[in-house]
Amino acid sequence: MQPRWLSQSGSRIVVNPYDVLATSSPVEQSNRPDVPLNVAYYAHDGATRLDDLLMVNVRPSGEAPGYGEAEVGFVDGCTRSADWTDTGSLTMTASGSVLKLTSVAPGEAYASRAATVDLDRFPLLRINVPQVTGRWSLSLVDAAGAVVTVQDATSAAGVFFYDVAASTSWQGTVALTVRLQVIGEGSSISVDEVRLQSVPTVPAVFEDDFDSLDPGWTRSAAAATSVSDGRLQLTCPNTTGTWYGYVTRTVTVDLDKYPILKVKVDSVGQYWAVKVNTGQAVDTIVQNNSTELGIFSYDLQQITGWTGVQRLSIRLFVNGFQTTASFDSVVLQARTKPWLEQAADLSTTWYPHQLPFEAGYSSGPSITGTDFFASNDSLTRCVEVTGKNLAGRILLSGQYFGAPSYDAATRTLTFTLPELTYSVALPSAIGAPRFYADRDSWSCGGPVLDGDLPAHSGFWQVTLPAYGSGPLRTQIGVGLAVSTEPGDTAARRAVDARSADRAQITTATRQHIDALLAVVPHPIDFSLQAVAADNVDPGQIRAMYYRAWVFLAHSVLPPQPEIGQTHALLATGKPALYLHGPAGAHASASWDSEIGIQFLAYLDADTAWDALEGLLSLVDDTGLLPGEFLPAREAQTAWALTCLTGDDRRLAAIYPSLRRLLVYKQDHPKYSGDTNANNKDLPFVAHALIDTDYAIAIARRLRLDDDATFWSSRYTALNTDMLGWFWKTPDAQPPQVYDPVKDVSAAGNVMSATPALHVRTVDATHSTGLLQRFDSLYDPVKPLAGFGFDTNDVRYGITSYTIYGLLDRGHTERATTLSNAILLGTVSTHMFAERYQWDEQDGIFGAGQRPSLFGVANVIDAVWMNNGYRMDGGVPSFVLLPATAGGLTNLRFQGRQLAVHADARQQRVTLTGDLINSDAHSQSFTLDLGETLPLPARYSTVRFT
Q1: What is the number of other CB atoms lying within 10 angstroms of the CB of residue 527?
Q2: 145, 848, 870, 944: which has the fewest Cβ within 10 Å?
Q3: Is 943 exposed, middle or buried (0-12, 13-18, 19+ CB in 10 A)?
Q4: Rounded distance, CA 548 to CA 280, Å?
Q5: Please, which pLDDT band fits residue 241 given cuts at 50, 70 and 90?
């Protein structure tokens, strides 16, 4: 599976961000036939997606069909039964926006509604019938009393269209009556809307422009609604105690014919979202929390898998206390058939420094191109057109977000959003750009907008010049800037990117990445241990290992002075646009990012320190690090950085924040999403205990003897609590979650309990139940060693401590198998994911935040242990797994070099480099299989403790 995302260390830009809610691959998400350049930009502690920022198409010959929505000549919203006249034995009731007609006697009864309409302009009758019992029919009556039946007796529900002019031969302005017949006693029909309209390009079965709030919408208890200026204002007031609210509207629709849901969002305070439901217990997410504005189209069939006639509830959400989302319109329609020619064949290649593509078109031309970073804040797209000369029909287009403007002198389009500004510098010899309201009108060739342009979103297009006998070569520049930068910054960056020297820049970028990879530790052996290779060879593992380092380096975000954040951040899932960390570092989850920081320190220790300092600067006076509250790894991370750099000054500076945070995590050992304040979560407790050991080491290194005693006493107290909370008897199988107030426990995930194996004070008796839980799922021949089947428990944060715990207790085979099974799974998916799962149908797949840092840690840590090296203790440590026959070179500690050579057959580890003192006896030693040995102080030329 080809990766598709691209970034640079210290850049706010992500090319081809990944939608973690989708099940499609990165290639499927980014390689569409319009050849899109998809971008996201981090600013103001958020990340804004700019999908389809650039696209390439071919204009077909002939006139464009254009796209037109229906104009309405008459509409009855079915909110008042008094607007209808009943004839026969019929009852009529109106509730919300639904008129219900029920026959109470044999035969036919009907209700009539008079209308006067110009059928030359509005010939199409649309009626929405959400529910039917028995049968109904529909007739039209003119002023002379002539009756024309347009719908014979039927029991079908849904939305129906009738061409009145064709059915009746009536012309011009006509006074007519719509007659709805209910056939048979007990039969009933519910009618949501009746309208006479023009014939649209694409039929729509439901439209609401929010001129008023139709009573068909109902709101949740936590939502407040109002309508003004043709927009629905949806607010979640803080007084409800709920952080989200929604409105819902139910429509009966044939999704085979009308699967496209279009939503226009004009403004939002925090987040908006869209979900749908057909009666199931849990809504299906159509659009997860978003800050984007504009018109969004969703193919409900593709998203949900639903087909045929469905009673569909559409739900618009606002998320965030005291925040408002403004919705301009909601439409449910048929698919639009694009008129613009898309690539018939598209192939792409991924390199860490550029993204080449090749596109072939049925009409003759071929287009090759490359997207690359011109700078940390700009991109360049190179395009070369060959083949049949289409005389100026090669189109360059883009979806835009924000208020548009165009500078003809520099041929620069600029779009302004609250958080950022971005510009597109267009090639020479082009005319002024044309603008379109939405994707439908752009893809159908019109209508072109004149006058005022949409302030929030739309599409633009220019035609590239005709080319002669040779190829047409051109470049487009894209520049981005934070809103606090000078107003012309993005445009200047775009103009510079347009003239970028591709060969020079991509060569320099490749050389920079090569230099980066030259610095990282180099394993000798990339083979798997203890598990069947399953078509994963050492070459693939080697490639994934070095990709992991590129991913790690390129996940660094620069300081964000616009929010007062002066430190670099290590993004948890930079291409996944993870934003649930603390305010001021929304892109960093403490657990994931801190583990990533430990590995980053081997590559760039100064940036690693800076990222840790940035996170800890956000710890409040109570010790809370806001955002998603996760298990403790802060002390381990600080200790690892200190061992690698020897920088006691930086350690002492962060210690007060680290101290407050660890105390808080000791006292609140549970996930932030757990609403039961009494609950204790075993992996949180285990992590807190392990981190307390690192806190003791830190206090001793800083010569804070009282604090070392303080931490030791807190360790003892928390350990006593842990054994009492989770072990009913010393050899019991402990649950993951326990409520000591109600004395209620929840077994939870197996792997969520087993990190306690790495707690040094869990004795052999107490570990018995943990091992029994582990063995209840462990199977060396199954994917992921039996774990991750329909669970979320295979994630580095907990699997790493489980593996170390198994080694601690002499279960070397189990530890080796689990570590290598996860390595195999990670490499086989070609995805650095938060967690990994498997099922019988799909095998192993990445899940959760992806791409993200835990997958990186899976690969590096497992490869290192296979080569005899453990990094988790900070101090260089060595371990022999049963098939170890390799080593690790290019390790650096406090400016000194270390190389490790390990041989399980001889049970020997040999160390070289100036980290090791000159005593020949200290350079080689024997080691039992599975035993971990930290570098003895007498062997080292630097101080670790």
Answers
A1: 16
A2: 145
A3: exposed
A4: 40
A5: low
Query: Average pLDDT of 297-315?
Result: 94
Q: Which of 554, 434, 412, 564 is nearest to 489 (CA)?
A: 412
As a whole number of angstroms, the distance between CA 607 and CA 199 comes to: 61
Percentage of the chain beyond pLDDT 70 is 99
What is the mean pLDDT of the segment spanning 800-823? 98
- Give the Cα separation of 608 and 641 in Å (integer): 8
pLDDT reading at 818 higher than 80: yes
String of DSSP letters for 190-201: EE-EEEEE---S
Question: If you write DSSP's letter for every residue of 242-265 in order, what string do you get?
Answer: -SEEEEEEEEEEETTT--EEEEEE
Show Cβ contacts of residue 647 under 8 Å, excluding neighbours closer than 6 positions.
609, 641
3-state secondary structure of 906: coil
Largest CA distance in the chain: 115
Would you call 668 helix, strand, or coil by DSSP?
A: coil
Q: Check residue 781 and give left, alpha or beta (phi > 0: left; psi -120 to 50: alpha).
A: alpha
Cα angle: 504, vertex 508, 513; to 5 degrees: 150
Give the HSE-up count for residue 461: Cα atoms under 13 Å, Cβ half-sphere. 28
Measure the CA–CA gap between 293 and 402, rounded to whole angstroms.
8
Buried b (16+ CB within 10 A) or exposed e, 753-791: bbbbbbbeebeeebbebbbebbeebbebeebbbbbbbee
Q: What is the CA radius of gyration of the chain?
A: 32
Q: In what order do the strands lie in the sheet with 877-879?
A: 869-870, 877-879, 932-934
Three-class secondary structure of residue 166 per DSSP? helix
Per-residue b or e along 263-288, where b marks 16 or more CB atoms closer than 10 Å to that residue's CB: bbbbebbbbbbbbbbeeeeebbebbb
Q: What is the pLDDT of residues 257-278, one digit of tens each?
A: 999 999 999 888 878 999 999 9
Q: 644 near 607, Cβ under 8 Å?
A: no
**What percent of the chain shows pLDDT beyond 90?**
89
- pLDDT exceeds cutoff 90 at 321: no
pLDDT greater than 70 at residue 16: yes
Question: Is the bond leading into 669 cis (omega within 30 degrees of zero)?
Answer: no
pLDDT digits (tens, 9 = 90+) for 464-481: 987 776 788 999 999 999
Which of 399-431 are b and which e, b meaning 16 or more Cβ less than 10 Å from the residue's Cβ? bbbbebebeeebbbbbbbbebbbbbbbbbeeee
Beta bridge mates, 327: 232, 265
Are the beta carbons of 768 and 756 closer than 8 angstroms?
Answer: no
**1: its two tokens:** 């599976």
- In this structure, the chain runs to a length of 945
Q: Are strands 294-299 and 345-348 parallel, antiparallel or unpaired?
A: unpaired
Whether 920 has a pLDDT exceeding 70, the answer reads no
**Extended beta strands in 530-585, E state:** 556-557, 569-570
Q: CA 206, CA 158: separation in Å to the nearest integer? A: 11
